[in-house]
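User: Please fill in residues for this 410-position structure.
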């Protein structure tokens, strides 16, 4: 068969073929994904990851100095290069998960929830202890934190159970999901991890409210939440210590939790509106866990409060964008799953920033896509990939404003 005049140019370098794969007429998986995925929601986490790399580069020298001693010297940019490695892993994970069909994403999430719940049960036996907490499983090159991976799986599984309420309001879905949440809370408090316990409970309540439970049930949940906090203070030593150190600081507390909160606040505000400049921050060298829990404060010192405000707006933009996408969603499962994942993302960011600003006691929770960490980055990528998968829309369908039905776009 003879070659047409433009054939050599079209195949050169393979670029036109890639373009054809992503064209609107393409029916390939990559082509359909490219047009179905919300590209604003895809761009925002990539922007946060880029900001995170800059922030970890700023925090790395401080953390390296803290963990260096006479026998072990940590290179100043060690944590930056490690974070760059995790980014190279997590970005492909995010994209691959976002390409999953809804049914497969649901099945894998249900299976993953069982696996990571089982690993959490095994933590007292096989867990690796760090700073008095048994939250990790050592894998040699890194540590695996099962609760980080369980979060998105738990949300999808809970959304799936609650979605049955749309078919039969009499099903005891609130009791079933409440029992699962209580089991996870007990396992988390045994680690101990009070911050993650609050996060799981908050997201469960949000999902219940979105599923349409009665006002009486919501009031009962509010009463149970207050009772739970009081019980935690009375019978759970970790919660009592954290609350006491935050509300009633003593000399001992000033050397522990209160010191961290106050130092984070001082670091955050040291740079003023525009910051001291990249690499010019000095208070960060006295800040514990500058690359993880308190990286928001490092951003404040080096890049200013305006930069912190922009980051807050980016997180808010993600949540608002998801809610706007779900306004006309008819599938109860997709609605609950996507809203729950967005809520987890937003609540986790809110808790971390509240700790950094001194509004809340220290909880050991990372800032999504910005803080350093392997488990956290990959788990967040899986969760955000699921969020993108559940908010994808067929580009060839358009919903009628009159009938509410989906049909082929003109």
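Assistant: Residues filled in for all 410 positions:
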């Amino acid at each position: 068969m003879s070659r047409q005049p433009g054939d050599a140019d079209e195949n050169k370098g393979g670029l036109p073929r890639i373009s054809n794969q992503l064209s609107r007429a393409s029916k390939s998986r990559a082509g359909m994904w490219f047009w179905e995925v919300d590209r604003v929601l895809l761009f925002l986490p990539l922007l946060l990851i880029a900001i995170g790399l800059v922030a970890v580069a700023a925090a790395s020298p401080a953390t390296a100095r803290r963990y260096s001693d006479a026998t072990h010297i940590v290179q100043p940019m060690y944590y930056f290069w490690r974070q760059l490695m995790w980014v190279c892993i997590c970005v492909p994970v995010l994209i691959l998960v976002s390409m999953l069909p809804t049914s497969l994403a649901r099945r894998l999430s249900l299976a993953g929830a069982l696996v990571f719940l089982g690993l959490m049960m095994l933590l007292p036996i096989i867990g690796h202890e760090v700073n008095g907490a048994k939250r990790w499983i050592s894998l040699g090159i890194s540590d695996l934190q099962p609760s980080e991976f369980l979060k998105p799986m738990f949300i999808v599984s809970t959304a799936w159970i609650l979605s049955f309420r749309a078919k039969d309001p009499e099903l005891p879905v609130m009791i079933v999901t409440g029992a699962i949440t209580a089991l996870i809370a007990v396992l988390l408090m045994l680690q101990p991890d009070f911050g993650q316990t609050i996060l799981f409970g908050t997201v469960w309540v949000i999902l219940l409210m979105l599923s349409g439970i009665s006002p009486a049930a919501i009031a009962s949940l509010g009463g149970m939440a207050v009772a739970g906090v009081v019980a935690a203070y009375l019978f759970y030593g970790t919660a009592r210590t954290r609350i006491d150190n935050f509300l009633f600081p003593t000399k001992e507390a000033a050397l522990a939790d209160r010191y961290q909160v106050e130092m984070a606040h001082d670091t955050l505000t040291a740079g003023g509106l525009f910051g001291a400049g990249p690499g010019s921050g000095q208070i960060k060298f006295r800040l514990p866990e500058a690359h993880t829990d308190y990286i928001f404060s490092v951003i404040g010192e080096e890049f200013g409060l305006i930069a912190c405000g922009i980051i807050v707006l980016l997180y808010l933009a993600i949540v608002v964008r998801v809610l706007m996408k779900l306004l006309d969603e008819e599938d109860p499962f997709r609605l609950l799953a996507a809203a729950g994942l967005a809520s987890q993302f937003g609540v986790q960011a809110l808790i971390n920033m509240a700790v950094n600003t001194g509004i809340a006691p220290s909880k050991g929770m990372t800032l999504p896509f910005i803080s350093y960490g392997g488990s956290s980055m990959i788990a967040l990528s899986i969760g955000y990939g699921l969020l993108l998968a559940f908010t994808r829309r067929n580009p060839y369908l358009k919903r009628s404003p009159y009938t509410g039905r989906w049909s082929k776009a003109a």
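For context: Residues 37-393 form one domain.
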